[in-house]
Amino acid sequence: MTLSPSEKLRSIVKTYDVRGLVGNTLTEDMVEALAAGFVDEINGAGADVVVGHDMRDSSVGFTAAFARGARARGANVVNLGLCSTDETYFASGSWSAPAAMFTASHNPAAYNGIKFSRAGAQGISLDTGLAAIRDRAIVYLDTGMTSVPTPGTYREIDVIADYASYLRSLVDLALIRPLTIVVDAGNGMGGLTVPAVLGTAAGLAELPLTIIPMYFELDGTFPNHEANPLEPKNLIDLQKAVVEHGADLGLAFDGDADRCFVVDETGAAVTPSAVAAIVALREIARAKAEDARADIHVIHNLITSKIVPETIRAAGAIPVRTRVGHSLIKDEMKRTGAVFGGEHSAHYYFRNFWGADNGMLAAMHVLAEFGHQSLSLSEFSAEFMPYALSGEINSTVADVVASTARVRSAFEGRASFDLMDGLTVTGATAGDEPFWWFSVRPSNTEPLLRLNVEAAEPHTMAAIRDEVLALIRA
């Protein structure tokens, strides 16, 4: 069945962003219509609207199409050119301007997409404006573009030097011990931002860091591996290189460089939950130094490790448990005034970065905390990884509801249930019996169930994991 342009557009507008196959479900005509709908939705006529793009081959053409649509509806387009997603958040936040970033993040080369923000780097989801942008764009696709009497202007600005300076002002790395770091940019935008922020490419002072670059060449075909460090296979090159070079640690960025993953000197992954706990401690301490009597909130989603809320409470702050979701967590950051938020997917959100996520900033916090002590990273991070985690396991199922019901029925009488964002099952343990819990969440777009298990002991985690997977896949 052949879909009309408006049907294709409807199919690529996801919960938190736009993502589709280049030239098929995502075309320049659609981008032009989406840009016009975006400007109308945010009342952007006469105001600046920021746009940036990653290194994918289609991104330059899509950015030009966006500029045409936005200017037709009266917006003054400020093109950042090649940049990371968090550079667009920086521009949106520091200039109080809405923004659009062209990227498909970690998805393969055949894809591209758009991440929209309101002024101040506030996320836009289906529930908070993305559906309205989609519907306005469909009208423009069906009836043709209409221009306002005074079209908007266009200019180009490179913000990387200001972006790098701002991050350096938030985390001082000048006095840490010398560290050797292997960085895998995955041919993504980390190849641009790492030399600027951690090196001297933006004209900043040299830091006590020796950077060993891997795949820093910007290449949207991803010739070495997918720029998705959440998949263990994409960390293998980095893990080998860290050991071969005798490095202190390794960092891996995804395609648009808004997520960062960490490996220790042995090549073992440091979990995103451990990173979240480490950064939370630093952000709580900073907030206490500013106001010792203030209530300090830190957000974590429901599938981060138990160590994250434990660390937050032990530091005298208030953990806020949320559903999984990028724009949702940005909204919660704003609602609660949280100083920091961490997700299992290695998205890290900062109040002093307008509530937006920034993988580079999280990496800098880890370098600062680790670099001010003498332990190896494996020794240092062990405190923040005391429990056994399964990682996220996806299962394609014929009936999501029936599979979930089987799981719940099997654990009746030996666990408690929480229906926030799927089903969370917590073992009704007693005395010294090791704790366990798991989460089963449906995908928003596919017939998938996502399983995450954590337990005090590896054998308990493995037993629960295998039992639940058998129920899901029965």
UniProtKB/TrEMBL annotation:
Domain Alpha-D-phosphohexomutase C-terminal stretches: 392-470
Example GO molecular function: metal ion binding
UniProt entry tagged with the keyword Membrane: no
Alphabetically ordered keywords of this record: Isomerase, Magnesium, Metal-binding, Phosphoprotein
Entry's EC annotation: 5.4.2.8
GO biological process terms, semicolon-separated: carbohydrate metabolic process
Sequence similarity: Belongs to the phosphohexose mutase family.
Entry-linked PANTHER family: PHOSPHOMANNOMUTASE
Name the record gives this protein: Phosphomannomutase
The organism of origin for this protein: Alpinimonas psychrophila
